[in-house]
Specification:
Layout: H1 2-13, H2 15-27, H3 38-52, E1 55-59, E2 66-71, E3 79-85, E4 105-107, E5 110-112, H4 116-137, E6 143-149, H5 159-165, E7 174-177, E8 189-191, E9 193-194, E10 196-205, E11 211-212, H6 223-232, H7 255-263, H8 268-274, H9 284-292, E12 298-304, E13 314-315, E14 318-327, H10 333-347, E15 352-359, E16 362-363, H11 369-382, E17 387-389, H12 399-404, E18 409-411, E19 427-429, H13 430-456, H14 462-465
Parallel strand pairs: 3-6, 3-7, 7-18, 8-17
Antiparallel strand pairs: 1-2, 2-6, 4-5, 5-19, 9-16, 10-14, 10-15, 11-13, 12-14
Helix pairs in contact: 1-4, 1-13, 2-4, 4-13, 7-9, 11-13
């Protein structure tokens, strides 16, 4: 198609200019956990979007501002909402970075910088795709709205209230996001949901202070053992969670989702190497089912007593354990939290449970027409058959779109598998960044083509035409 050939040629011609625009955004710190540079980054991004012609403004929340932009045309019936986040993780530990964390540096075809892959590189791919399409064609075949938040790395605590309060403003037909890593095979990847998460902190107390383990041994209780004894009542040796009702409400896999899990490429040995676990022993369907469609019950860390070098014979006064529990559709973080607390009250009532944060799980049906249209766009953009995965193993605030706005949501990562997000030397491959720009252009075009087809067929609206 001539339009898309023009777009591809333009991206190649503008490579250096587009990289420089990304570098400008990367240099601006935006660490949400420390409130460092957040507003400055939001203002910078707003200015970059306005220069392209996107009507952009900052919308305040109880936390960091939302960068909201839109390109609306009354001739277009279909509206795509693009989501991303401009905040980044802290760069620590600094001594493990080969180059400065906020100075984009190119090595071996990769851009190294905090936020390169998560999420500024992927965010800018969308923004620059719109610029490319407008310059190549003159106008968009669909309406586009942008929601870029500044708190994703803090759990998106204010995004649900923002969405709930702005449903009319955010009215759309489909949500499209790019975050996370591509498939390890390097094939284009489409994700149709995310697991939810419940993050908890458990604290057990013994004495009022640390005691000598000889002089007070068998007298003062050890809080670490309290935690271990409780944990032994929560999970059996096979890994099955024993909390009553934990597995209630889990939505069974559809035949289509089972088929998709079986079709995902899988190299056991290669994945084992890449995740640092060469003893990985399971078939592909089991791997992806466990990774995406089953809940987890994970201990993130435990702290108590003396953990430094040398010996210190004490009975600790306090022990703290942190857990994250990944949830699948239709498990509820509120419901699992109540059941968890009920279990603790039964077996260890003196242990305190603190709810740190949570995300609801989310999933879009693989059988919707929008999935078919975006799949076609990916297939043509990358000249390769895309992998469709029913869910991401991790957690994102996807439920605000599928639950609050009642919209289908599709996630297509534009960063390489080894991007190192959240780690020192985070990066994005230049080719992945440029291909992301191209991919968004194809998605825009294909959704526009579908809207035209509906109008030719006399469909009154996208909904009635079967898009969703």
């Amino acid at each position: 198609m001539m339009i898309l050939r023009n777009v591809s040629a333009m991206i190649k011609e503008r490579k250096e200019d587009y990289l420089n625009q990304l570098f400008t955004l990367l240099r601006q710190k935006s660490i949400s956990a420390q409130n460092t540079g957040i507003r400055e980054c939001a203002v910078l991004l707003k200015g970059m979007m306005n220069e392209i012609g996107i009507d952009t403004r900052l919308i305040e929340t109880d936390g960091h501002p939302i960068v909201y932009g839109e390109l609306m045309n009354s001739k277009n019936d279909f509206t795509l909402l693009i989501y991303g986040h401009y905040d980044v993780q802290p760069p620590d530990p600094l001594d493990e970075w080969i180059s400065p964390p906020f100075e984009p540096t190119v090595r071996n075809g990769k851009i190294y910088c905090r936020g390169a892959g998560d999420n500024k590189g992927q965010l800018m791919a969308h923004v620059l795709a719109v610029k490319t399409y407008l310059d190549a064609v003159g106008e968009l075949p669909i309406n586009i709205k942008f929601v870029f938040e500044g708190e994703e790395e803090n759990g998106s605590v204010n995004l649900p209230s923002f969405v709930a309060e702005n449903k009319k403003l955010l009215k759309a037909d489909l949500v499209y996001s790019s975050d996370g890593s591509s498939h390890e095979s390097n094939a284009p990847l489409m994700l149709l949901g995310v697991r939810g998460m419940l993050y908890l902190e458990l604290t057990a107390k013994g004495g009022e202070w640390d005691n000598h383990s000889g002089n007070k041994g068998n007298i003062v209780p050890n809080p670490v053992w309290k935690l271990f004894d409780l944990l032994s009542t929560m999970r059996d040796s096979s890994g099955r969670v024993l909390i009553e009702g934990f597995y209630d409400n889990i939505l069974p896999l559809s035949s289509k989702e089972t088929e998709l899990l079986k079709s995902i490429p899988y190299d056991q040995e290669e994945i084992g190497k890449k995740i640092g676990y060469p003893n990985l022993k399971m078939d592909g369907e089991t791997y992806y089912r466990k990774l995406t469609m089953e809940p987890t019950f994970n201990i993130c860390g435990i702290h108590s007593g003396h953990t430094g070098e040398g010996a210190k014979t004490i009975i600790p006064s306090k022990a703290t354990l942190k857990m994250d529990i990944r949830l699948v559709v239709d498990q509820s973080p509120d419901d699992i939290y109540k059941k968890f607390c009920t279990h603790v009250k039964k077996y260890a009532p003196d242990i305190n449970v603190k709810r740190v944060g949570s995300f609801k799980p989310s999933r879009t049906s693989a059988e919707l027409k929008c999935v078919e249209v975006v799949t076609e766009a990916l297939r043509e953009a990358y000249n390769e058959e895309p992998i469709i995965q029913p869910s991401l193993g991790g957690s994102l605030p996807d439920h605000v779109w599928t639950e609050l706005l009642q919209l289908p949501s599709i996630l297509v990562p534009y960063a390489n598998f080894d991007q190192g997000n959240h780690s020192p030397n985070e990066n994005i491959e230049i080719d992945y960044f440029l291909n992301g720009i191209k991919c968004t252009c194809y998605v825009i075009q294909k959704l526009g083509d579908y809207e035209k087809d509906l109008k030719k067929e006399g469909a009154i609206s996208i909904d009635k035409g079967g898009m969703l």
